[in-house]
Write a structure and sequence with these properties.
Rossmann fold, 7-stranded mixed β-sheet, 11 strands, 241 residues, alpha/beta, binds S-adenosylmethionine
Length: 241
């Protein structure tokens, strides 16, 4: 049975992992290498990857020598991630709207893992939790989509066949959200899910971050850490303390 929150249901299905299976791990690893070098993160750093999904960034960061905790709302994703656990790599189910139990030297929120909630108060609550969950010199790495680019290049209709499933996808920008409708037939049933990500640009993110006491130190526009440009950048990457 579906819950009231699309992100609780959709991200916990096996279909979500099928649709996005071609996600570029090499690109994710290049980003992680670049960001830890930029931040000169010491090997004693404890990083929280929130939300971590199946742990693709967390596992790689741990392989570089960092102590890493990955947390995500999706039980299925955490169960898959747990297969990689070791003494310095742990995974747990956690809702980012809940207060953290521990403090971390760095919190990474990667690959558009924000802006899912209707009310701005919930966005702020997450950022406040992250702020409170950081040590005094702790750093926040925030990797979001570049809303202006998404709007400019919106593919309104798309058909994608992955593992024999035909996903029919439509996209629109509506009431301040970038909305993606996904429908498909699988396992003898019709399915439909909707992803909704708030249209958040640098200005709005800056307001959010300042409200909870963060100071932006860098903004980048891609995983190679080139500067952010709202017209040309693929990503909006913010480093804040
Ligand atoms: C776009 S995925 C990105 C996951 C991961 N960072 C990656 O790059 O593979 C977004 C993730 O957010 C998680 N999520 C959604 N709402 C959440 C919440 N309230 N608390 C914790 N995780 C949540 C989903 O389960 C999903 O794994």
């Amino acid at each position: 049975m579906k819950t009231k929150d699309w992100f609780t249901d959709w991200f916990n299905t096996s279909y979500y992992h099928i649709l996005y299976k071609e996600r570029n791990d090499t690109e994710a690893q290049v980003f992680m290498k670049n960001i830890v070098a930029l931040l000169s993160l010491d090997k004693s750093t404890h990083i929280l990857d929130l939300p971590c999904g199946k742990g693709r960034h967390a596992v790689f960061l741990n392989s570089l020598g960092y102590r890493v905790t990955g947390a995500d709302l999706s039980e299925n994703s955490i169960n898959l991630a747990k297969k990689h656990e070791n003494d310095t790599l742990h995974f747990e189910v956690q809702d980012m709207r809940a207060v953290f139990k521990n403090k971390y030297d760095a919190v990474f929120n990667l690959f558009t893992s924000f802006g899912y909630f209707e009310d701005d108060k919930e966005d702020l609550l997450i950022l406040q939790n992250i702020k409170n969950g950081l040590t005094k010199e702790g750093v926040f790495v925030f990797d979001f989509l570049n809303a202006a680019m998404v709007k400019e290049n919106l593919v309104t209709k798309e058909k994608k066949v992955v593992d024999g499933i035909t996903f029919n996808i439509t996209r629109e920008i509506s009431n301040g959200f970038i909305v993606k409708h996904i429908s498909f037939f699988a396992d003898t049933e019709n399915h439909s899910y909707t992803e909704r990500v708030k249209y958040l640009d640098l200005e709005k993110m800056t307001t959010y971050l300042e409200k909870v006491g963060f100071k932006i130190e860098h903004t980048f526009g891609d995983y190679q850490l080139n500067s952010f440009n709202s017209k040309h950048s693929n990503r909006l990457i913010i480093v804040a303390k």
